[in-house]
Amino acid sequence: MKNKINALLHEVKTFSAENLEQLEAFRIQFLGKKGTIPALFAEFKTVPPEERREMGQLINTLKQAIQNKIVTLKNQLDEKSTAQSSNFDLSLPAGSPLGTRHPLSIVRNEIIDIFSRIGFSVSEGPEIEDDFHNFTALNFPEEHPARDMQDTFFIEKDPDLALRTHTSSVQVRVMEKSQPPIRTISPGRVFRNEAISARAHCIFHQVEGLYVDEDVSFTDLKQTLFYFARELFGEHTKIRFRPSYFPFTEPSAEMDISCNICGGKGCNICKYTGWVEILGCGMVDPNVLEACHIDNKKYTGFAFGMGIERITMLKYQVNDLRLFFENDLRFLKQFQSSR
Ligand code: PHE
93 in a domain, yes or no? Predict the structure, then answer.
């Protein structure tokens, strides 16, 4: 009898049930009226008195093991069925779908990467700026009409303050604090009082760049911006410069790239010219260096500035600048980035 009970104990321990029906069959097999346990108790009556104690304990241990097994298996099967009935797929990876970066951030990061590779640092500055950093140090004389070019938002309470109209103001701050060699770019948000349309907004984003050192020439400017254009728009990109005017650079130029849509053959994006304008640039005016306490006999420099919206529109063929500010998920979801 002892051997029989031990064999049964082993059977109980190794039993497992796929479903509630199998578990119920197990219960009936052992605990049912005609089951194993009642049968053992019946047999117990024939056990000689000296073995009774030991056999009684063994049968009770077996009964306890059966009851424990039933409770454990029942709990497991219950858990499994709630998971199934509530449509949870526990094998799916955890977490909700990842968001994507805003297209303007993707392009800004790409521009920063490109200039970092040739030694430019990143500098930032305040969005509310004083007249000196936004205009005067940049060679905009008082009352000069060039100030109107920028459609400034002034702060009513203090006419010396305005929302910066470009991030050239950040470069003034860098030059005030450091001496050449200076190689830095300043990404940031800028503000101009322009009517909102598909091509203009009163808030937009810029990346401006500055390089000041001994013997910096227009050739350096051209080569740097040529490298930049090819990195961003592809190795077949061509560039050309057109004379222009900015108070803080002399000579000044605007740079075009060969149209990245039609490759220069002519399309409606480039208005059939084969070229699209992407940035303004020039050699830093000696007056600007002087205003920032940099020796303009010893040092020269170049500067450039571009609108991130415009570059993004060209790169991704977005035809309405307002899309960048609406945060419509159907638009934003189309952009993916690795960083
Ligand atoms: N600051 C100019 C702008 O806001 C861009 C620019 C920067 C042009 C540097 C020339 C040199 O449009």
Answer: no
Whether 234 and 275 share a structural domain? yes
Say if residues 155 and 170 touch (Cβ distance below 8 Å): no
Q: pLDDT (tens digit, 9 = 90+) per residue, 37-72? A: 888 888 888 888 888 888 889 889 888 988 899 888
One domain for residues 45 and 141: no
Q: Which of 175, 171, 160 is nearest to 129 (CA)?
A: 160
Q: How many folded domains does the chain comprise?
A: 2
Q: Is 22 among the domain residues? A: yes
For residue 302, the CA-to-ligand 1 centroid distance in Å is 11
- Structural domain harbouring 139: 103-335
DSSP strand E in the chain: where? 121-122, 128-130, 161-163, 182-191, 203-213, 239-246, 249-258, 275-284, 300-307
Both 108 and 219 in one domain: the answer is yes
Q: Which pLDDT belongs to residue 150?
A: 67
307 CB less than 6 Å from ligand 1?
no
What CATH number is given to the structural domain containing 213? 3.30.930.10
Going by DSSP bridges, is the β-strand pair 128-130/203-213 parallel, antiparallel, or unpaired? unpaired
280 lines ligand 1 (CB under 6 A): yes
Return d(Cα 133, Cα 119) in angstroms, integer.
25
Q: Which of 139, 165, 166 to mutate to test ligand 1, by most ligand atoms within 8 A of the CB atom?
A: 166
The model's pTM is 0.72
255 lines ligand 1 (CB under 6 A): no
Q: Does 168 lie in the same domain as 64? A: no
